[in-house]
Amino acid sequence: MKKSFYGLLTICIVFFFVTVSAYAATDPLPSWNDGPSKQAVIGFVVAVTTHGSPDFMAKEERIATFDSDGTLMSEQPVYFQFLYEIYRVRILASKYPAWQTLQPFKAAMEGDLAYLAHSASPGELDLAAGTEVDRSDEETRADTAAWAAASRHPRFNRPITDLVYQPMLELLNYLRANGFKTYVVTGTGIEFIRAWAEKTYGVPPEMIVGSSIKARYQMRDDIGSVIYEPARNFICNGDDKPTAIHYMIGRRPIAAFGNSDSDIPMLQYATSGKGRRLGLLVHHTDDVREWAYDRGSRVGDLDKGFDEAARRGWVVVDMKKDWKVIFPFEQRNSR
Amino acid sequence: MKKSFYGLLTICIVFFFVTVSAYAATDPLPSWNDGPSKQAVIGFVVAVTTHGSPDFMAKEERIATFDSDGTLMSEQPVYFQFLYEIYRVRILASKYPAWQTLQPFKAAMEGDLAYLAHSASPGELDLAAGTEVDRSDEETRADTAAWAAASRHPRFNRPITDLVYQPMLELLNYLRANGFKTYVVTGTGIEFIRAWAEKTYGVPPEMIVGSSIKARYQMRDDIGSVIYEPARNFICNGDDKPTAIHYMIGRRPIAAFGNSDSDIPMLQYATSGKGRRLGLLVHHTDDVREWAYDRGSRVGDLDKGFDEAARRGWVVVDMKKDWKVIFPFEQRNSR
Questions:
Q1: Domain tally, chain B
Q2: 3-state SS record for chain A
Q3: I want to staple A129 with a disulfide (CB 3.0 to 4.6 A). Which of A154, A213, B12, B16 is the partner?
Q4: Using a CB-CB distance cutoff of 8 angstroms, which residues of chain A are in contact with residue B138?
Q5: What CATH number corresponds to the domain at position B222?
Q6: Does B190 touch chain A (CB under 8 A)?
Q7: In this complex, is the C-beta atom of A221 within 8 Å of any C-beta atom belonging to chain B?
């Protein structure tokens, strides 16, 4: 008895120390350089998840909302939905001769990225409304997923879903591991983003809040189907982000993440609630590894966000300084 | 060593048998009488959750959608949101003299339940749009929750949330225990139902899809708030239920539950997808314990649903025959 007792005790003690040291050695955000941004994020998560902490938040309150374009993934030279729409417009062009002179269809046909970048979310939605008409949500999703896997980004010559930010993937996982529900709240059309967001971000379709085109229910060959119609339904930008969060989530987030002035209302909404809050803006400062832009950018304009960040204590991530790697493929290449 | 080994083995064996027999003895739907309805429900859940079953569905596909009024909770003599609106209209009546002659406000002021029942979801939404204007979502939710706790149903003289169906609560729990995400998809306004659905159904605000009034984002005293406006936004009934599921959930459910013709499209949508599916209609047949109604009812009209159920193999629950108890308070009373 004695012998087995001490044997067991030894195993327990060894197991305890191995576990503790493994835990201590685990950095939840390994692609983030040490510094105030990383400290602010980890400090927030520890404060709201530690029982007995004055800032503790019950699990059901742990809602975090993320913008997509420019916050979780690159948005240059245009939002990636435009690349899909260019592909769709070119397939359908012969059926719609009017597109030869009708914007933004003409620009899509000609691959005029400068024009498309300027037309932003309304342009995306108009193209989707024109090219998805009469397709079911399921047909569109399957086609988009296949396109995304085969896509090539004009600068990086890789699938567009490779241009996701490794530090933000770590942040999504870190929050989820701490009981957060992580939502994407985006100007991108849900018709497009839901096709790849589950695989790329770990965010399932039911946790994507976004812009959308009109849809109607219809029986086709005795199968109940949701079919797209040629009109915009909702554009999820600016003041409409908190409104969309109300309709689709129904709780004020305790943390929100964006990168442009159009995310200011969502961050205000999250951070002006009671208790400890986190607002974070991703500032694009790295024109070598990614892009550098802020005030006056055609895509992802960030201007008033700096003042609001200073006033409300939001974290402003400097991509160049704060992030060891930007894209997951950098890590794979360096191994 | 030997002695301790056999001791441990004995404990393990005893533990194993206790667990197995406890498991076998646990009926997941104790308030359901044995019969075809209960068998169909359990047969479906076992089939889609058993690894290696030809009908197995991955966890992320296990989406179940439930109508609320008449499916999870009573809807007589009127949808319960009307009872809250009567309370609101009477508080605000002196501010809005026009309501004296304007329907449905006049009916609400007079407590004319027959008129309100007839005006159904549009009436509910118009009242909410009139009485919630300029309140924030959070103010409305707190007020509604307090009202619900103090409410008295005209027939049962109990809080309206007591009139939930015990067999359906068991079904919600059974599905969740088997990895399903359980959503409510309802004609009721989200402004109303989210105030009590988490406590009553175990369904959090972010899993409620429903009708809604317009809302806008606004800073009030430096707090970002979602404020209600005096107009309908969306009525979630009939063909608009699958459409709302597309916008808010983004996956075709594999199981859907309703009680009236307005749920037919949602059940068609769920059950005409590929693989094993479950559609279920609750038929109100018990005028002693609850109410008996179907064809031609002002509330919860069920007519074409019978034909569709026969054609598509949906379960039709006979409340009188299939359910041992209707309301949780019957159980508490009989103990």
A1: 1
A2: CHHHHHHHHHHHHHHHHHHHHHHHHCCCCCCECCCHHHHHHHHHHHHHHCCCCCCCCCHHHCEEEECCECCCECCCCCCHHHHHHHHHHHHHHHHCHHHHCCCCHHHHHHCCHHHHHHHHHHHHHHHHHHHCCCCEHHHHHHHHHHHHHHCCCCCCCCCHHHHECHHHHHHHHHHHHCCCEEEEEEEEEHHHHCCCHHHHHCCCHHHEEEEEEEEEEEEECCEEEEEEEEEEEECCCCCHHHHHHHHHCCCCCCEEEECCHHHHHHHHHHHCCCCCCEEEEEEEECCCCCCEECCCCCCCCCCHHHHHHHHHCCEEEEHHHHECCCCHHHHHHHC
A3: A213
A4: 252
A5: 3.40.50.1000
A6: yes
A7: no
